[in-house]
Design goal:
Elements lengths: L3 E3 H5 L2 E2 L2 E6 L2 E4 L11 H6 L6 H7 L3 H10 E6 L14 H40 L1
Parallel strand pairs: 1-5
Antiparallel strand pairs: 2-3, 3-4, 4-5
The protein binds protoporphyrin IX containing FE.
Length: about 130
């Protein structure tokens, strides 16, 4: 398991049936695991042939996930100058749904504030009209 691969070699393996991932400068052949990944195949394909260290760590994978990873190990990355930086995880389904709901919450908050301001304005206007009469 002492095979050394350059980033260029790894990046040639980004297809679902031929999928290499770099995590902590180790190269993992994830082809056999794509269909079984509890986080879905899309996130793996997104970082296929790239440095997935951040994407993998951001999720806070369990020890079990790390054990699976060891079984997929095929070599180490021969890092060269100018190689791309770790790819940050794409927004996952659960993360995007929370951000949508928080976006809606903010929108609602704005509507309530604006509504309150409009009501206050109308109240002041009526008051000033009453004063004139
Ligand atoms: C070959 C590398 C990977 C392996 C072996 C792996 C394995 C696993 C395993 C076993 C789980 C179940 C929960 C756990 O045990 O932590 C999981 C969940 C998850 N993984 Fe991965 N994973 C890998 C790469 C990635 C990458 C690169 C991402 C990118 C974002 C990712 C995103 C997720 C997400 C979002 C979940 C949570 C799914 C849920 O709880 O609904 N994984 N992964």
């Amino acid at each position: 398991m002492s095979k050394e691969l350059t980033y260029a070699e790894v990046s040639a393996h980004s297809a679902k049936k031929d999928l290499y991932l770099v995590i902590h400068d180790k190269v993992y052949d994830s082809s056999s695991f794509v269909d079984e990944h509890p986080g879905g195949e899309e996130v793996l394909l997104d970082v296929g042939g790239q440095d997935a260290t951040e994407a993998f760590e951001d999720v806070g994978h369990s020890d079990e996930a790390r054990e699976i990873l060891e079984g997929l190990l095929i070599g180490t990355l021969k890092r060269q100058e100018g190689d791309p930086k770790p790819k940050i995880a794409p927004v996952t389904a659960s993360a995007s749904s929370t951000s949508t709901s928080s976006g809606l919450g903010l929108g609602l908050y704005a509507i309530i504030l604006l509504g309150g301001a409009a009501a206050f304005g109308a109240y002041k206007y009526v008051q000033s009209q009453e004063g004139k009469a």
